[in-house]
Each structure stands twice: as C-alpha cells, then as structure tokens.
Amino acid sequence: MEIIVLLARILFGAIFIIAGPGHFTTERISHAAQLGVPLASVIVPLSGIIALLGGLSIVLGFKAVWGGWLTVIFLIPVTVMMHQFWNAGDPVTLHVQQAMFIKNISMLGAALLITHFGSGPYSLKH
C-alpha cells in the first residue's frame, strides 16, 4: 500500500501549489493588509513562493523534509494573521474563520509529520 503515501503527498501538497499563485494578486495582498499584515506587498508574495516551493517539494518527494518545513513556516503566520476568528464580528465570519483556522492547524500537523518522516516511497529522494 505504498501508493497511499504518494497519494497523501499529492493531496497535501496540492493545496499549497494551487494557493501559491494567488498570493501575487492585488486582492490577496489588499486583504492581508486590511487584516494588519505588515509589509503585505512583500510578505504576501513571499508567502506564495514559500507555499509553492513547499508544495512542489512534498508532491515530488524532492527534499520533502525541507518542503515540510517550508509549509510549517507558511502555515504558522498565515493561520494566526489571516484566520482571526476571535476578532470576527458576525457569526458567519466567526464560523468560517474558525473552520479555516482549525483546517490550518490540522495541516500543520501533517507538515510536521513530513518534517520527521520525509517523503516515503515513490519520491525523488535527495
């Protein structure tokens, strides 16, 4: 059942690969700035590069431990700064942001597993 590890890497890494390019849009940068992200015009695109490189590393299994750490570096500030459910003014926003926060915490757990165990089978291990 080694193929399951490959499938897990693809499913986990895909969200970072898909989300990465969005960090270069004016909408995403403006949204982050409104939430108080300092130097959003620099930090948000940089976070997109980190997410994209981390996701690609994990999916390909190339330096996956490093890719895991990149996703950890991405997830911690994004989770805390972008999903502040505790500051939500209305119930819908509170529930959406709380769900996003918890999703990111779960993904952080998976990223930490990758930092420990690496890529596993069917990878470009190096």
What does this structure look like?
The protein is mainly alpha-helical. It has one domain (3-117). It is built from five helices and no strands.
The backbone outline, from C-alpha atoms, is globular
Which segments are poorly predicted (pLDDT under 50) over 5 or more consecutive residues? none
The amount of beta strand, in percent, is: under 5%
The ordered H/E elements are: HHHHH
Sketch the major β-sheet: none
Radius of gyration: 15 Å
Q: What fraction, in percent, of the residue positions are helical?
A: over 70%
Give the arrangement of secondary structure elements.
Elements: H1 3-19, H2 26-34, H3 40-60, H4 64-82, H5 91-117
